[in-house]
Amino acid sequence: MRYVIGNWKANKNFDEVRAWLQTFFNSYRSRSEVSVILCPPYPFISYLYEKLVSIENVFIGAQAISSIESGSYTGEVTAKSLAGMICYTIIGHSERRIVFKETNDDQIQKTLQAKKYGIEPIYCVRDEKDLIPENIKFVSYEPVYSIGTGQNESLEKILEMKKVLNLSKDTVFLYGGSVNEENLKEYTASDEVNGFIIGGASLDVNQFLRIVNSL
Ligand code: PGA
Question: What's the CATH number where 171 sits?
Fold first, then answer.
């Protein structure tokens, strides 16, 4: 199984989301060996869920999740409120850690919240110094200098980091950082990378579909 995670980050308005989805809907052909996980901004999660709930091998994910369960926390989006619509959530993305100053402790609380509500964490690490909580199934290696820069990491370096991370054999190991339809082949040559978090290249639905179809 390979996983393609489209992380739209803070991009797209409703018209753009509708257009993206329309093309995806018309052109996507499900294959049992590829899982597609779409992570739109929060306001579009329920819309994508309604549209895609019956499409095989397509799932909705959140880009982040609150460390808090519920209560008087204006603006927070919790696992409790997303449960039932999303199957996955990204946790620990470097943009959360760096821009929003989230700590390792925050990531642990978020992981607990996600799991409590049946949401599978996709846990991002910048390197081996970002500690991975226990019982994490999906780990994504995301070197900061590769994210959004066009400087994708070489397969060799990715596999070196995989060794250093010393993951259990059941871990689904992902890579994220400037993956696009051109450089994808380098990674798919190896069985050791089980999927990708795709930011910039997921915004264009046609490129995203070409990536999905080439796996
Ligand atoms: P990018 O983002 O593909 O735009 O580099 C990847 C990520 O943030 O994981």
Answer: 3.20.20.70
